[in-house]
Each structure stands twice: as structure tokens, then as C-alpha cells.
Amino acid sequence: MLARHKLLNIQEMQPGSTLFEVCETQSCEEHTGKIVEFYCLDHSQPCCTSCATLSHRKCENVTSIQKAASGIKRSTKASGLSQKLREHVIQLGEIIEDRNKNLADVENSTEEIKTRVTDIKMEISKHVDRIEETLIAELTSTKKQVGIELKDEVDICSSQRSAVKKWKAVIDSVLEHGSEQQCLMEIKKIEPKISELEQEIEDLVKNIKSVSVVFSPSPSIADFIKITQTFGDIKVDKSSVSSLSGYLEIEKVDFRTGNINILQVINVCDGGGTTSGICIDDYLLFTIRQSNKVVKYNSDGTSLLSELALPGAPEDIARIKELKVAVSSPVLRVCIVDGDKMTLLQTLKLPGVKVYGLCFVNEEEFITSHSSTLTWINYLSGQTVNQIKTSGQSYFVLSSEQQDYIYGDSNTSVTYAVGNTTKFTYTNDQLQGPRGIGKDLVGNIYIAAYISKNIHQITKEGQLIRIIPASTIGVEVPWTLHFVPGSNKFLVTCVNSGKATLCEIA
């Protein structure tokens, strides 16, 4: 292994000895035992004599290795390579540091999950203990009550039996030892009581019930035992940037009864106007119909960052992926916008399709809504995939899964459908003019009604949870409603004032 290496005396390696250089001679990688003597400039390839005569004999620029290497250590090529390698060392070091931090985060999060699971187990155990104590107390009370009733019956029968035994003893005694006169007298005393006793016994027998204490597990307990096979799902999330602790805080939010707090009122359109808005990553994006533009705010709505002028009036806005969004326009149909650089990327003309609201089902398909028509369109080809007719007032649509969609279906109703099947239609006397539709983390649906000036919160089965007056969240006439992805925050826009409100359920 060391045959062609330069060997040094051990004394030459002692501290303070003269520095030595790497051996001048280099072995050829192609031909074992050969020394590199030449350099082919045409191929930038070091060569031994065999390489020079066999592989590079037709090359015009072959020189000695010493000449080719002259001044290389001071050349920009060498220094540039050294600098590039240094940069890559730093870059790889940063990647390693980031990966190690991520590894530490994963270890911390798994420990937090273990703790959370233990806490859940303890909560379940405490809850089971409490309902067990309640049941045992109820069982003890029931047993006591039943025992009193049965004991009363036993006491009555015992009293009657004692009387009968006494009468029998008297009759038997006079029959054996008494006179005829005594026997007649006792019979006259006891005989009338027999018919009364028989009636009492008959009534007692009729009223006797077989009593037992029966336990029937509640359906929820039976379902819990049958259905619950795990505490939850473990998955690897490669995109989420929220911490586990933050997620657990959101998990504690009761979306059905929690207070709705106003975080920020944003004056999107000065002087009033119609706007639609969405929350993506660290930004809020709004359309402004009156001024034909899209504007971008920071995540808390306190600073206007940039704006994009469009060639037509925009109505609705929906996320495609990352910071790429689609903006609907009755004139332009659909504009594709880079929400990061705020540039117009593409315009989909969609001939024959009327457009007002829109939402993306996935990265390849979106739904447009207008009056009494919903249209499914392939985003890549621009071709219509499907189209259905509604009862009207279908100006906005929401799709949260591959097959489901929710839309206004009249001036007082909203329909939730899966594929070609209607799951439910929600109607309410206080729902007038349904427009924007949103859905929270746990599946509750929110309907912004601009005529009745309220927001209806319903379950995913279509049952009313509560009606939220628009005035309580700082909006005059609610128009669109969108939740911040993975959050308890939502954005409501106003059709008249041009304002938007960022709210939080807590």
C-alpha cells in the first residue's frame, strides 16, 4: 500500500523539524507503476507515457507536467477552487447544524407526544374513575331502596306468619287438652280472621314482583371500547413549521363555544368597496374590485407590503399551492398570480364559462361558481370537467376534500354535497343572502350572510351551532370568510366598507 509513497525518517517528523512537502511524483490512475510526466491541455488530463502514446497521441497540446503545473498554486483557478470548497464546507456545516437541530426538535416533540399521551391516559382514567364512582353510588342507593322495599314485604309476611302460628298453637292446644266449650270459643275467635288473612295473602301474592338490578353500558362506552383502538395517529410532517406546543394550544380551543376576538381591522379599500381575502403562509392577500388590483399585507394585517394592478375587476381569490393564487374576474375569467413576487403569471380565458367565486379542489382542478352554475375546470388544460345547475345564489363555493363542495343554493339555504350526492341542505329564517363559506380545523362550517348580516356556524352534519351577528366582529355586511390554514384564526371581509377583520376563536 505504501510502495509509491515518500517515506520519511521518524526524526524528520519531530516537532521543530523542517517542514516537508508532498512527494513531487504522482502515480498514473490508469496505468499502475507509471509516473505522471505529461499533461494534455486538450482534455485537461494528466498522463503517463502510456497515456500519452495510446490515448492522447492525436492531441496537439500535450506538455510536461512540470510546465503545466508551473504557477498553478498562485493561479485564480486554484484560489477559486479553494474558496468554492470553503463555501461548500460552510454550507454543509449549516445543513448539518440545521439537521441536528431538526433531530433535536424531533426528539423533543416525540417526548412531548409521550407526555401528551400519558396526560390523555390520566385524563381518561380520572374521568372513568369519576363515572365509576357515580355509578357505584347510584348502585348503592338503588340496592338500599330495593332492600327496604323487599324487607317491608318480608316483615309483613313474617308478622302474618307469627299470628297464624299463634292461632294454630291455640287450636291444637284446646283440641288436645281443652273442653268442648273452650274449643268452640277459640274457633269463633279465629275463624273470622282467616278470610281476612287469605285476602291479604292473595293481594300480597298479586303484588309480588321479581326484583333484579340490571346494568346496561351506555352506547358511548360500548362504542369507545369497540371503535377506539389507538390514542391517535403518528405521522411525519415535512411541511409544517408550527411547533407541537402551538398545535396543542389550538387543540384546546372549543370552536363551538369559544369567544370570537377581533385581532385586527384592516382598511383594505379606502372609501369603501368590495373585497375578498385569504390567508397564506405569512401574508394576507385581498382583491379590490373598484381599483382592479390585488394587495398583500403582512400576516397580522398591520402593514401593506405590495400591490398588483390587474386588467380587469377581481372578485374572489383562492390558493393553488404555496404562494401561487388564482383570482376570479367576470371579465378576465381567472388570473394566476405569484403572491410572493406579486406578478401576473397567466390568464385563463375559459370561453363560455361564467366566473364569480372559485376554489381549488387540488393542484389540477378548481371549481368556479356564478349565480346558478358550478363548473369544474382542469387547471392545466383549461377544459371543463363537469358542470351542475343549482337553485341560485351560488356566488361562492368551498371544497375541502377531493369530492365534497359547499355552496349557496338559494337566498336562504346552503347545500353540502359529496360527488353527486347531497349530504344536507341547511336553511334558517335568519339566513338571508349566503355568500362566503369557511371551514375550521374540526370541520365546523361558517356561512357569511350579507343580507341578514350574520355568520351561521353549523356542524359538518348541517346542525346549527350558533348565529354570530356581524357587528360583534367589526363587520357591517359580511362577504367572504376564510380560515388561516391550521389555525383558529379567520378572515372576514365586508362588501360595503372595504374593510376586513382578522379574528380568533379562543
Question: Could you describe the 3D structure shown?
Answer:
- This protein is an alpha+beta fold.
- It has two domains: 103-219; 255-505, TolB, C-terminal domain (Neuraminidase).
- 31% of the residues lie in helices and 30% in strands.
- The protein has six helices and 27 strands.
- It has helices spanning 49-54, 65-69, 76-177, 180-207, 219-227, 244-251, and strands at residues 38-40, 45-47, 62-64, 260-267, 275-280, 283-288, 293-298, 304-309, 317-321, 324-329, 333-338, 343-348, 357-362, 365-370, 373-378, 384-389, 397-398, 404-410, 413-418, 421-427, 434-439, 445-449, 454-458, 464-469, 478-483, 489-494, 499-505.
- The longest helix has 102 residues, at 76-177.
What descriptive keywords fit this protein?
alpha+beta, Neuraminidase, four-stranded antiparallel β-sheet, 30% strand
